[in-house]
Amino acid sequence: MDAEAELAAHAARRAQILQRVRTGVEVGNLDLDVSNAMLEALGLPPLPQCFTTDVSVDLTVTVIARSRDEAVRLAEAAVVAVLEQTRFLDRFDVHTRASIRAGVAPDRDTTAGLAGRAAAQDHGGAEPE
Fold it and tell me: Which residue ranges are recorded for the region named Disordered (predicted)?
Protein backbone atom coordinates (compact mmCIF):
# COMPACT_ATOMS: atom_id res chain seq x y z
CA MET A 1 0.00 0.00 0.00
CA ASP A 2 1.44 3.41 -0.89
CA ALA A 3 1.64 6.31 1.58
CA GLU A 4 -1.40 8.09 0.20
CA ALA A 5 -3.57 4.99 0.49
CA GLU A 6 -2.30 4.41 4.04
CA LEU A 7 -3.23 7.96 5.04
CA ALA A 8 -6.69 7.53 3.53
CA ALA A 9 -7.19 4.22 5.37
CA HIS A 10 -6.00 5.80 8.63
CA ALA A 11 -8.42 8.73 8.20
CA ALA A 12 -11.26 6.31 7.50
CA ARG A 13 -10.46 4.32 10.67
CA ARG A 14 -10.40 7.55 12.73
CA ALA A 15 -13.77 8.58 11.30
CA GLN A 16 -15.19 5.12 12.00
CA ILE A 17 -13.96 5.18 15.62
CA LEU A 18 -15.40 8.66 16.17
CA GLN A 19 -18.75 7.64 14.67
CA ARG A 20 -19.01 4.46 16.73
CA VAL A 21 -18.12 6.26 19.96
CA ARG A 22 -20.62 9.04 19.14
CA THR A 23 -23.35 6.46 18.49
CA GLY A 24 -22.51 4.65 21.74
CA VAL A 25 -22.83 7.90 23.70
CA GLU A 26 -26.03 8.95 21.91
CA VAL A 27 -27.81 5.66 22.67
CA GLY A 28 -26.59 5.64 26.26
CA ASN A 29 -24.17 2.71 26.06
CA LEU A 30 -21.08 4.87 26.71
CA ASP A 31 -20.44 7.68 29.17
CA LEU A 32 -19.48 10.96 27.46
CA ASP A 33 -16.63 11.84 29.84
CA VAL A 34 -15.13 8.35 29.66
CA SER A 35 -15.49 8.33 25.87
CA ASN A 36 -13.76 11.70 25.53
CA ALA A 37 -10.89 10.51 27.76
CA MET A 38 -10.55 7.42 25.58
CA LEU A 39 -10.59 9.49 22.38
CA GLU A 40 -7.99 11.84 23.83
CA ALA A 41 -5.74 8.87 24.68
CA LEU A 42 -6.01 7.76 21.05
CA GLY A 43 -5.12 11.24 19.81
CA LEU A 44 -8.63 11.87 18.49
CA PRO A 45 -10.72 14.99 19.10
CA PRO A 46 -13.32 14.81 21.86
CA LEU A 47 -17.02 14.70 21.11
CA PRO A 48 -18.63 18.11 21.45
CA GLN A 49 -20.81 18.63 24.49
CA CYS A 50 -24.16 20.38 24.47
CA PHE A 51 -25.37 22.29 27.51
CA THR A 52 -28.79 23.77 28.17
CA THR A 53 -28.84 26.54 30.74
CA ASP A 54 -31.66 28.61 32.17
CA VAL A 55 -30.80 32.29 32.35
CA SER A 56 -33.21 34.81 33.83
CA VAL A 57 -33.18 38.47 32.93
CA ASP A 58 -35.47 40.72 34.92
CA LEU A 59 -37.14 43.48 32.93
CA THR A 60 -39.30 46.26 34.28
CA VAL A 61 -41.96 47.40 31.84
CA THR A 62 -44.32 50.24 32.70
CA VAL A 63 -47.69 50.16 30.96
CA ILE A 64 -50.95 52.00 31.39
CA ALA A 65 -53.83 49.54 31.67
CA ARG A 66 -57.31 49.15 33.13
CA SER A 67 -56.51 45.97 35.09
CA ARG A 68 -53.65 43.84 36.31
CA ASP A 69 -54.42 41.17 33.70
CA GLU A 70 -54.37 43.74 30.90
CA ALA A 71 -51.09 45.17 32.25
CA VAL A 72 -49.46 41.74 32.18
CA ARG A 73 -50.71 41.09 28.64
CA LEU A 74 -49.48 44.49 27.42
CA ALA A 75 -46.06 44.15 29.08
CA GLU A 76 -45.52 40.62 27.76
CA ALA A 77 -46.61 41.72 24.27
CA ALA A 78 -44.17 44.67 24.38
CA VAL A 79 -41.25 42.42 25.35
CA VAL A 80 -42.12 39.78 22.75
CA ALA A 81 -42.41 42.49 20.06
CA VAL A 82 -38.89 43.72 20.80
CA LEU A 83 -37.53 40.18 20.87
CA GLU A 84 -39.20 39.40 17.54
CA GLN A 85 -37.65 42.49 15.93
CA THR A 86 -34.18 41.34 16.95
CA ARG A 87 -34.88 37.75 15.79
CA PHE A 88 -34.07 36.68 19.37
CA LEU A 89 -37.00 34.29 19.42
CA ASP A 90 -35.52 32.40 16.45
CA ARG A 91 -32.52 31.40 18.57
CA PHE A 92 -33.88 30.98 22.09
CA ASP A 93 -36.87 29.57 23.94
CA VAL A 94 -38.54 32.39 25.84
CA HIS A 95 -40.96 31.81 28.68
CA THR A 96 -42.58 34.79 30.34
CA ARG A 97 -43.40 35.05 34.01
CA ALA A 98 -44.85 38.27 35.32
CA SER A 99 -45.05 39.91 38.69
CA ILE A 100 -46.85 43.19 38.97
CA ARG A 101 -46.90 46.35 41.07
CA ALA A 102 -49.83 48.72 40.65
CA GLY A 103 -49.65 52.49 40.73
CA VAL A 104 -51.56 55.48 39.43
CA ALA A 105 -50.83 56.45 35.86
CA PRO A 106 -49.62 60.05 35.62
CA ASP A 107 -51.89 62.44 33.77
CA ARG A 108 -50.53 65.35 31.75
CA ASP A 109 -50.99 67.91 34.55
CA THR A 110 -49.11 65.72 37.02
CA THR A 111 -46.31 65.11 34.54
CA ALA A 112 -45.95 68.81 33.79
CA GLY A 113 -46.00 69.62 37.52
CA LEU A 114 -43.27 67.09 38.23
CA ALA A 115 -41.14 68.47 35.40
CA GLY A 116 -41.62 72.01 36.74
CA ARG A 117 -40.60 71.01 40.28
CA ALA A 118 -37.52 69.21 38.96
CA ALA A 119 -36.52 72.28 36.93
CA ALA A 120 -37.02 74.51 39.99
CA GLN A 121 -34.70 72.32 42.05
CA ASP A 122 -32.08 72.57 39.31
CA HIS A 123 -32.33 76.39 39.17
CA GLY A 124 -32.30 77.43 42.81
CA GLY A 125 -35.82 76.80 44.07
CA ALA A 126 -38.24 79.06 42.16
CA GLU A 127 -40.81 76.96 40.36
CA PRO A 128 -41.45 78.12 36.75
CA GLU A 129 -44.91 79.42 35.94
Answer: 103-129
